[in-house]
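This section describes the prediction task in plain terms. A model, or a person checking by hand, is given the sequence of a single protein chain and must write out its three-dimensional structure as a string of tokens. No templates, partner chains or ligands are provided. The sample shown here is typical of the held-out split.
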Amino acid sequence: MLFKETDSLDGIWETVMHELHRAVLDKKHPFRFVTLATLSGDQPDMRYVVLREMDEQHQFYCYTDSRSQKIVQLNKNPTLSLLFYHPKKRCQVKVHAIPTIHHQNKISQKHWQKVQGEAQKAYQASIDPAKEIDAPTDAHNWDEEKDDSHFVVLEIQPKIVECLQLDGLRHLRAIFKRKENSWAGSWLAP
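The expected answer:
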């Protein structure tokens, strides 16, 4: 378990934030791969992304291609949700957030320096993501020049963080809401 009913809300907040920060550093941490949900019209659209960084203000950073559907969707409806799950500790963390799209600016350039070698190809495909192709190998062509022209950093500012601790019949649920630069927590019925 990540938290228990005798823990304070402040203690739960600190524990959950600690685990999220660990996910950035530990490539095997279950929070490292997170489900990111956007809206495609009136339909939810979900995919996994990698949590690349989390700063002291609890902002999350993920990378993507500027031509991806998530960027198209976020430009139309700038809101998203993240869903983390820790299977061993049986804890789910849901985040409602507002993204900022960084493309060809100081923040994206700073993060591009962290993308090394072959990993850069993920943002340099010669064919746009989700475009129909005749064969899988058609998508395995990359621009020879390595540049960051399609590299995007999503800076994700959480507004609500909801934590669900599964424990047989005695599940626990807490919610934390951002109020300016601080967070206020309360218990919810699971």
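For orientation: Residues 9-25 form the longest helix (17 residues).
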